Amino acid sequence: MQRSRAQFLKLALSSLALGLPSAAGAQGTLRVGATANDSYAEPYYAQDQGFFQQAGLGVDLQTFSNGAGVTTALAAGAIDIGITNPISLANAVEHGIPFRFFATGALYNREELALCVAPDSPIKTAKDLEGKAVATTAIKDSNSLHTIAWIDQNGGDASKVQLVEIPFSAMAAAVKRGTVAAAPIAEPALSVAKKEGSVRVLGHPMDVYGKRFMVGGWFSRLDWINANLPLVRRYVATIYATARWANTHPDESATILAKYAKMDPATVRTMNRAPYGDSFSPALFQPYLDLGYKYKYLEHQLKATDLSTKI
Q1: Residues 6+ apart with CB under 8 A from 99
Q2: Which pLDDT score is estimated for 32?
Q3: Reported confidence tier of residue 24, pLDDT bands at 50, 70, 90
Q4: Rounded to an integer, what distance in angstroms lies between the CA atom of residue 274 and that of residue 38?
Q5: E strands, 5-64, where?
Q6: Could you give the C-alpha distances from 117 to 185, 190, 198, 209, 262, in angstroms and in order?
Q7: How confident is the model over 236-265, as a mean pLDDT?
Q8: What DSSP character marks residue 78?
Q9: Which pTM does this prediction carry?
Protein backbone atom coordinates (compact mmCIF):
# COMPACT_ATOMS: atom_id res chain seq x y z
CA MET A 1 0.00 0.00 0.00
CA GLN A 2 2.76 2.47 0.89
CA ARG A 3 4.52 1.80 -2.39
CA SER A 4 1.38 2.53 -4.45
CA ARG A 5 0.76 5.76 -2.57
CA ALA A 6 4.31 6.91 -3.21
CA GLN A 7 3.96 6.15 -6.92
CA PHE A 8 0.67 8.06 -6.99
CA LEU A 9 2.27 11.19 -5.52
CA LYS A 10 5.38 10.85 -7.67
CA LEU A 11 3.28 10.96 -10.83
CA ALA A 12 1.13 13.81 -9.57
CA LEU A 13 4.13 15.94 -8.60
CA SER A 14 6.33 15.14 -11.60
CA SER A 15 5.20 18.16 -13.57
CA LEU A 16 6.17 20.46 -10.70
CA ALA A 17 9.42 18.77 -9.75
CA LEU A 18 11.77 21.51 -10.93
CA GLY A 19 12.19 24.37 -8.50
CA LEU A 20 10.32 22.76 -5.63
CA PRO A 21 11.89 22.40 -2.20
CA SER A 22 13.09 18.97 -1.16
CA ALA A 23 11.61 17.16 1.82
CA ALA A 24 14.39 18.54 4.01
CA GLY A 25 13.70 22.08 2.79
CA ALA A 26 9.94 22.23 3.23
CA GLN A 27 10.26 25.52 5.14
CA GLY A 28 9.10 24.19 8.48
CA THR A 29 5.53 23.28 9.36
CA LEU A 30 2.67 24.44 7.17
CA ARG A 31 -0.36 25.36 9.26
CA VAL A 32 -3.53 24.32 7.40
CA GLY A 33 -7.09 25.10 8.47
CA ALA A 34 -10.08 23.00 7.40
CA THR A 35 -13.37 21.62 8.68
CA ALA A 36 -14.17 17.95 9.13
CA ASN A 37 -16.97 17.75 6.59
CA ASP A 38 -17.17 16.13 3.18
CA SER A 39 -16.60 19.27 1.09
CA TYR A 40 -13.50 20.35 3.01
CA ALA A 41 -12.04 16.95 3.87
CA GLU A 42 -9.10 16.68 1.43
CA PRO A 43 -6.33 17.47 3.94
CA TYR A 44 -7.59 14.77 6.29
CA TYR A 45 -7.26 12.24 3.49
CA ALA A 46 -3.80 13.54 2.59
CA GLN A 47 -2.69 13.32 6.20
CA ASP A 48 -4.01 9.81 6.82
CA GLN A 49 -2.76 8.43 3.49
CA GLY A 50 0.69 9.91 4.01
CA PHE A 51 0.45 12.13 0.94
CA PHE A 52 1.74 15.22 2.74
CA GLN A 53 4.74 13.36 4.13
CA GLN A 54 5.57 11.82 0.76
CA ALA A 55 5.44 15.29 -0.83
CA GLY A 56 7.89 16.68 1.71
CA LEU A 57 5.27 18.74 3.53
CA GLY A 58 5.16 19.04 7.29
CA VAL A 59 1.51 19.92 7.99
CA ASP A 60 -0.13 21.03 11.21
CA LEU A 61 -3.80 20.37 10.36
CA GLN A 62 -6.19 22.45 12.45
CA THR A 63 -9.94 21.81 12.52
CA PHE A 64 -12.56 24.58 12.64
CA SER A 65 -16.34 24.42 12.82
CA ASN A 66 -16.95 26.25 9.54
CA GLY A 67 -15.37 28.24 6.72
CA ALA A 68 -15.91 31.52 8.53
CA GLY A 69 -13.80 30.21 11.41
CA VAL A 70 -11.03 29.27 9.00
CA THR A 71 -11.16 32.74 7.44
CA THR A 72 -10.96 34.42 10.85
CA ALA A 73 -8.00 32.26 11.91
CA LEU A 74 -6.05 33.06 8.76
CA ALA A 75 -6.78 36.77 9.15
CA ALA A 76 -5.36 36.55 12.67
CA GLY A 77 -2.20 34.76 11.47
CA ALA A 78 -3.03 31.52 13.31
CA ILE A 79 -2.79 29.44 10.10
CA ASP A 80 -1.02 29.80 6.73
CA ILE A 81 -3.50 28.17 4.33
CA GLY A 82 -7.19 27.49 4.64
CA ILE A 83 -10.34 26.54 2.79
CA THR A 84 -13.52 28.60 2.78
CA ASN A 85 -16.52 29.60 0.69
CA PRO A 86 -16.43 32.57 -1.72
CA ILE A 87 -18.75 34.80 0.33
CA SER A 88 -16.56 34.54 3.46
CA LEU A 89 -13.43 35.32 1.44
CA ALA A 90 -15.08 38.22 -0.42
CA ASN A 91 -16.29 39.76 2.85
CA ALA A 92 -12.74 39.63 4.21
CA VAL A 93 -11.36 41.26 1.07
CA GLU A 94 -13.94 44.04 1.34
CA HIS A 95 -12.60 44.67 4.84
CA GLY A 96 -9.08 45.15 3.52
CA ILE A 97 -7.59 41.69 4.06
CA PRO A 98 -5.60 40.63 0.94
CA PHE A 99 -6.92 37.05 0.67
CA ARG A 100 -6.75 35.20 -2.63
CA PHE A 101 -8.01 31.82 -3.81
CA PHE A 102 -5.33 29.70 -5.48
CA ALA A 103 -6.87 26.22 -5.77
CA THR A 104 -10.25 24.52 -6.03
CA GLY A 105 -11.66 22.37 -3.25
CA ALA A 106 -14.98 20.59 -3.65
CA LEU A 107 -17.28 21.04 -6.63
CA TYR A 108 -21.07 21.08 -6.55
CA ASN A 109 -23.11 17.92 -6.14
CA ARG A 110 -26.77 18.99 -6.06
CA GLU A 111 -27.77 15.92 -4.06
CA GLU A 112 -25.64 16.97 -1.08
CA LEU A 113 -28.04 19.68 0.09
CA ALA A 114 -31.78 20.20 -0.32
CA LEU A 115 -34.42 22.58 0.96
CA CYS A 116 -36.80 20.31 2.84
CA VAL A 117 -40.23 20.45 4.40
CA ALA A 118 -42.19 17.98 6.51
CA PRO A 119 -43.63 15.06 4.49
CA ASP A 120 -47.22 16.16 5.19
CA SER A 121 -46.53 19.88 4.74
CA PRO A 122 -48.97 21.81 2.50
CA ILE A 123 -45.98 23.68 1.04
CA LYS A 124 -45.48 22.63 -2.59
CA THR A 125 -43.78 25.65 -4.16
CA ALA A 126 -41.39 28.47 -3.32
CA LYS A 127 -44.34 30.90 -3.21
CA ASP A 128 -45.92 28.81 -0.46
CA LEU A 129 -43.00 29.80 1.79
CA GLU A 130 -44.15 33.43 1.93
CA GLY A 131 -45.06 34.35 5.48
CA LYS A 132 -43.28 31.25 6.82
CA ALA A 133 -40.12 30.68 8.87
CA VAL A 134 -37.21 29.17 6.95
CA ALA A 135 -34.02 27.98 8.63
CA THR A 136 -30.51 29.14 7.77
CA THR A 137 -27.15 28.75 9.48
CA ALA A 138 -26.70 32.54 9.64
CA ILE A 139 -28.73 35.49 8.39
CA LYS A 140 -25.94 36.78 6.12
CA ASP A 141 -23.93 33.75 4.99
CA SER A 142 -23.69 31.78 1.76
CA ASN A 143 -26.39 29.38 2.99
CA SER A 144 -29.00 32.11 3.42
CA LEU A 145 -27.90 33.71 0.14
CA HIS A 146 -28.73 30.74 -2.06
CA THR A 147 -31.90 30.00 -0.07
CA ILE A 148 -33.43 33.44 -0.64
CA ALA A 149 -32.20 33.56 -4.25
CA TRP A 150 -33.83 30.17 -4.92
CA ILE A 151 -37.14 31.38 -3.48
CA ASP A 152 -37.08 34.48 -5.69
CA GLN A 153 -36.05 32.53 -8.80
CA ASN A 154 -38.83 29.99 -8.33
CA GLY A 155 -41.84 32.28 -8.03
CA GLY A 156 -41.70 33.31 -4.38
CA ASP A 157 -40.86 36.59 -2.67
CA ALA A 158 -37.96 36.06 -0.27
CA SER A 159 -38.62 39.41 1.42
CA LYS A 160 -41.78 37.85 2.84
CA VAL A 161 -39.90 34.93 4.40
CA GLN A 162 -38.63 34.97 7.97
CA LEU A 163 -35.10 33.56 8.24
CA VAL A 164 -34.33 31.74 11.50
CA GLU A 165 -30.79 30.82 12.53
CA ILE A 166 -30.40 27.10 13.30
CA PRO A 167 -27.24 24.94 13.19
CA PHE A 168 -27.04 22.46 10.30
CA SER A 169 -27.08 19.60 12.80
CA ALA A 170 -30.52 20.68 14.10
CA MET A 171 -32.21 21.42 10.74
CA ALA A 172 -33.97 18.09 10.24
CA ALA A 173 -35.34 18.07 13.80
CA ALA A 174 -36.59 21.66 13.41
CA VAL A 175 -38.57 20.71 10.30
CA LYS A 176 -39.97 17.61 12.00
CA ARG A 177 -41.07 19.62 15.08
CA GLY A 178 -42.56 22.40 12.97
CA THR A 179 -40.22 25.02 14.41
CA VAL A 180 -39.63 26.10 10.81
CA ALA A 181 -41.59 25.44 7.65
CA ALA A 182 -38.50 24.58 5.65
CA ALA A 183 -34.78 24.10 6.11
CA PRO A 184 -31.72 23.45 3.94
CA ILE A 185 -30.52 20.03 5.11
CA ALA A 186 -27.06 18.83 4.16
CA GLU A 187 -25.40 15.43 4.16
CA PRO A 188 -25.23 13.19 6.08
CA ALA A 189 -28.40 14.38 7.81
CA LEU A 190 -30.19 14.61 4.45
CA SER A 191 -29.76 10.92 3.61
CA VAL A 192 -30.78 9.89 7.12
CA ALA A 193 -33.91 12.09 7.12
CA LYS A 194 -34.97 10.91 3.65
CA LYS A 195 -34.50 7.26 4.65
CA GLU A 196 -36.59 7.82 7.79
CA GLY A 197 -39.28 9.56 5.76
CA SER A 198 -39.18 12.58 8.07
CA VAL A 199 -38.72 15.19 5.32
CA ARG A 200 -39.73 15.89 1.73
CA VAL A 201 -37.41 17.64 -0.71
CA LEU A 202 -38.85 20.94 -1.97
CA GLY A 203 -35.86 21.98 -4.09
CA HIS A 204 -32.11 22.34 -4.41
CA PRO A 205 -31.27 25.99 -3.59
CA MET A 206 -27.62 25.84 -4.64
CA ASP A 207 -28.79 25.40 -8.22
CA VAL A 208 -28.94 29.21 -8.31
CA TYR A 209 -25.16 29.25 -8.86
CA GLY A 210 -25.30 26.95 -11.88
CA LYS A 211 -24.54 23.32 -12.61
CA ARG A 212 -20.78 23.40 -11.98
CA PHE A 213 -19.13 25.65 -9.45
CA MET A 214 -16.69 25.67 -6.56
CA VAL A 215 -18.23 25.05 -3.14
CA GLY A 216 -15.00 25.93 -1.34
CA GLY A 217 -11.51 26.97 -2.33
CA TRP A 218 -7.99 27.04 -0.92
CA PHE A 219 -6.72 30.49 -0.04
CA SER A 220 -4.16 32.54 1.84
CA ARG A 221 -2.85 36.09 2.04
CA LEU A 222 -1.46 37.28 -1.29
CA ASP A 223 1.79 38.47 0.27
CA TRP A 224 2.32 35.10 1.96
CA ILE A 225 1.57 33.23 -1.27
CA ASN A 226 4.09 35.33 -3.23
CA ALA A 227 6.74 34.83 -0.56
CA ASN A 228 6.21 31.04 -0.48
CA LEU A 229 5.39 30.10 -4.08
CA PRO A 230 7.40 26.83 -4.21
CA LEU A 231 5.74 25.64 -1.01
CA VAL A 232 2.27 26.64 -2.22
CA ARG A 233 2.84 24.86 -5.54
CA ARG A 234 3.82 21.69 -3.74
CA TYR A 235 0.73 21.96 -1.54
CA VAL A 236 -1.54 22.45 -4.55
CA ALA A 237 -0.03 19.49 -6.40
CA THR A 238 -0.54 17.32 -3.32
CA ILE A 239 -4.11 18.46 -2.68
CA TYR A 240 -5.04 17.84 -6.33
CA ALA A 241 -3.43 14.40 -6.17
CA THR A 242 -5.52 13.80 -3.06
CA ALA A 243 -8.62 14.99 -4.91
CA ARG A 244 -8.08 12.44 -7.66
CA TRP A 245 -7.49 9.71 -5.07
CA ALA A 246 -10.64 10.62 -3.11
CA ASN A 247 -12.77 10.78 -6.27
CA THR A 248 -11.79 7.20 -7.11
CA HIS A 249 -11.64 5.72 -3.58
CA PRO A 250 -15.02 6.55 -1.98
CA ASP A 251 -14.98 3.71 0.55
CA GLU A 252 -11.47 4.44 1.83
CA SER A 253 -12.11 8.18 2.02
CA ALA A 254 -15.43 7.56 3.79
CA THR A 255 -13.62 5.70 6.56
CA ILE A 256 -11.23 8.61 7.07
CA LEU A 257 -14.00 11.23 6.99
CA ALA A 258 -16.05 9.25 9.50
CA LYS A 259 -13.10 9.15 11.89
CA TYR A 260 -12.45 12.90 11.85
CA ALA A 261 -16.09 13.98 11.66
CA LYS A 262 -17.06 11.43 14.34
CA MET A 263 -19.75 9.93 12.11
CA ASP A 264 -21.02 6.42 11.46
CA PRO A 265 -18.83 4.97 8.65
CA ALA A 266 -21.84 3.18 7.14
CA THR A 267 -23.72 6.47 6.89
CA VAL A 268 -20.80 8.19 5.19
CA ARG A 269 -20.41 5.38 2.65
CA THR A 270 -24.04 5.61 1.55
CA MET A 271 -24.56 9.38 1.58
CA ASN A 272 -24.09 11.66 -1.43
CA ARG A 273 -20.48 12.82 -1.61
CA ALA A 274 -18.75 15.88 -3.04
CA PRO A 275 -16.50 15.57 -6.09
CA TYR A 276 -13.18 17.39 -5.74
CA GLY A 277 -11.66 19.60 -8.41
CA ASP A 278 -8.09 19.25 -9.69
CA SER A 279 -7.82 22.54 -11.58
CA PHE A 280 -8.68 26.14 -10.81
CA SER A 281 -10.63 28.82 -12.66
CA PRO A 282 -12.06 32.05 -11.18
CA ALA A 283 -15.21 31.39 -13.22
CA LEU A 284 -15.99 28.58 -10.77
CA PHE A 285 -17.06 31.07 -8.10
CA GLN A 286 -18.14 34.23 -9.96
CA PRO A 287 -21.87 33.33 -9.52
CA TYR A 288 -21.44 33.65 -5.72
CA LEU A 289 -20.10 37.18 -6.11
CA ASP A 290 -22.85 38.22 -8.52
CA LEU A 291 -25.64 37.05 -6.23
CA GLY A 292 -23.84 38.35 -3.16
CA TYR A 293 -23.82 41.85 -4.62
CA LYS A 294 -27.40 41.63 -5.87
CA TYR A 295 -28.66 40.75 -2.40
CA LYS A 296 -26.38 43.24 -0.59
CA TYR A 297 -24.28 40.55 1.07
CA LEU A 298 -21.32 42.31 -0.56
CA GLU A 299 -20.83 46.05 -0.82
CA HIS A 300 -19.18 45.96 -4.24
CA GLN A 301 -19.54 44.10 -7.51
CA LEU A 302 -16.39 41.98 -7.31
CA LYS A 303 -14.63 40.06 -10.05
CA ALA A 304 -13.49 36.53 -9.29
CA THR A 305 -10.23 37.23 -11.12
CA ASP A 306 -9.44 39.94 -8.56
CA LEU A 307 -9.89 37.43 -5.73
CA SER A 308 -7.63 34.82 -7.32
CA THR A 309 -3.94 34.36 -8.01
CA LYS A 310 -2.03 32.05 -10.29
CA ILE A 311 0.59 29.89 -8.66
Answers
A1: 71, 74, 75, 89, 92, 93, 219, 220, 221, 222, 307
A2: 98
A3: very low
A4: 6
A5: 29-34, 58-63
A6: 10, 12, 9, 22, 27
A7: 96
A8: S
A9: 0.86
